[in-house]
Fold:
Amino acid sequence: MDTAPKQNLAISAYSWLKHDIIRGAFAPGEKLLMSKLRDRYELGVGPLREALSQLVSEQLVVAISQRGYRVASMSLEELHDLYDARTQLEGLILELAIERGDDSWEANILATAHTLAKVMEVNTAEEMLDVWDARHIAFHTAIAAGCNAPHLMQARKNLFDQVERYRHLWLRETVFSEKALNRKRSEHAALVDVILKRDAAKARDMMRTHLMTPVPIIIEVMERHGLA
Amino acid sequence: MDTAPKQNLAISAYSWLKHDIIRGAFAPGEKLLMSKLRDRYELGVGPLREALSQLVSEQLVVAISQRGYRVASMSLEELHDLYDARTQLEGLILELAIERGDDSWEANILATAHTLAKVMEVNTAEEMLDVWDARHIAFHTAIAAGCNAPHLMQARKNLFDQVERYRHLWLRETVFSEKALNRKRSEHAALVDVILKRDAAKARDMMRTHLMTPVPIIIEVMERHGLA
DNA sequence: GTTTGCTTGATTATCGATATTCCTTGCGAT
DNA sequence: ATCGCAAGGAATATCGATAATCAAGCAAAC
Structure:
């Protein structure tokens, strides 16, 4: 059967708002007028407030009582803290995964790495970006999943959602550069190699370096866009 | 001036609901009828839905579209995963804190440890529980704060909020037992000692052991209460 | 010239009413 | 007896209207 989940408007509003905030359709710090949001999404204030409440929990939006909602601001300081936290957490999770991962974990890493390595047959540039990013995320998630700790994975996802606004700045620079893509390709191959050899210390260091490479590019883009 | 923050009803509803869920006023898995919540807190459905949305983000409540909200269930499986995640994360944060902590970090640890060690002059049993718990949390938070990574601290807090329902089961058993309290006291003293010596590996092991001690007690209480 | 207070328009916060969806129960057919 | 289905009751989801609050502009006073 066609099990159309029939989700309620608050959930839809949440998805759309999150998407638009991450993609930069709303500027950091921008006030989110209920009247504007009503027009844009054709929704009542009820569902909107529910969606915004959830985004406040995720720290993509800040609420000021009696004064509505604003998009969370971005700063170099937060960028550094986010990537610091993310790098440390991903390193921890990777060590656990190497300690705990089983055969199907290894198989999934190889499968997702393979899929990621051959993103070729795409049409438009936007599609390229979406496809590469989705497979890139799937690859890293497959690695992390070996830690066998759902709540650590949840914490990882929370951090990732927060960093995604910054990361998206980097993505546009990388995906459209053959050179940058090739560099990522070889980094991923080296990572897989070390992980399958279960060399935890080396894998952790490589992962940290790998995760940190976007930071200088993001800083450059932020300064260019006057965000810093 | 008396800066009464004048927070809106949704925020109040969030605090009350969270408090009541953690303290077990609503059973795990219990359906949260809007009509009942309306009566209990004397609020409209709007603020309630906003509060519940946030609790869904924190995974203390689950929402099923078109079918309302339920308190998140509890299980031995989740208990083990939560404590695993928490222990690993707290260990990571402690290592970072030992590497990065400065003089004022050390001072705060000593200060909060001292305050925790002498919880004596309390009146009622309930007050004892609240005071001891607050100081206990302050002590551990002071240790963690040395990592100097706000977003890791946020991830830590998220995990803590989720574990608090389980932890509360343990708290009632521990705080009212002079023997258990003494054991915690000496563990804390030993922890402070090792931390100030900046012995990261040993400190991490001790911290993990310390955090894990409640687990068997919680399992016992859960089985007694038919939660498992 | 700066500050204070008032007025007015704009915005948020909340509730009650309505529409939609879900769940149970009971009846009839197989 | 069991299954399917329809009807009624219960609960959720949403909107529009109203009340409460805030922000800007102007005027008068110091």
